Amino acid sequence: MHASKGDRLVQHGRVVGQHDQESEVVEVLGHEGNPPYRVRFADGHEAIMSPGPDCQVKHENERHH
After folding, report:
1. Which residues, 6 or more positions from 42, have their beta carbon under 8 angstroms from its beta carbon?
2. Confidence class of residue 63 from pLDDT cuts 50, 70 and 90?
3. In what helix (H) or strand (E) does residue 63 lie, and over which residues does it extend?
4. Residue 47: is its pLDDT beyond 90?
5. Taking residues 23-38, what's their average pLDDT?
6. Residues 28 and 53: beta-carbon distance below 8 Å
7. What pLDDT does 15 receive?
8. Which residue from 43, 4, 50, 56 is spatially nearest to 25, judged by alpha carbons?
9. Once rounded to an integer, what is the mean pLDDT over residues 46-52?
10. 36 preceded by cis ω (within 30°)?
11. With the C-alpha atoms ordered 44, 45, 48, 49, is the resulting torsion angle positive or negative?
12. Which residues contact 46 (CB under 8 A, 6 or more apart)?
């Protein structure tokens, strides 16, 4: 998984009824776009994440097309 600052990280719900969580990558802490990432959620909360297989990166340049 590779991400850049400004990309969106989507963590898919793991159980029925659980919604996806989306956050913005504000800093890439790994080498060459690799995790971990500092992310910011819509409520302003920030966290360090090393995404697992339930996550997807939406690249900033893909969202503008």
Report:
1. 22, 23
2. low
3. helix 60-63
4. yes
5. 96
6. no
7. 76
8. 4
9. 93
10. yes
11. negative
12. 26, 38, 39, 40
Beta-carbon count within 10 A of 28 CB: 18
Which amino acid is residue 46, in one-letter code?
E
> Which residue carries 């909360």 as its tokens?
45
- Counting every residue written for the chain, the total comes to 65
Tokens matching residue 51: 């995404």
Tokens 């913005």 correspond to what residue?
A: 24
The answer to whether 50 and 4 have CB atoms below 8 angstroms apart is no
* 3 touches 37 (CB < 8 A): yes
- Residue in the structure block whose two tokens are 């998984």: 1
Averaged pLDDT for residues 26-34 = 95
Residue 42 is which amino acid?
Answer: A
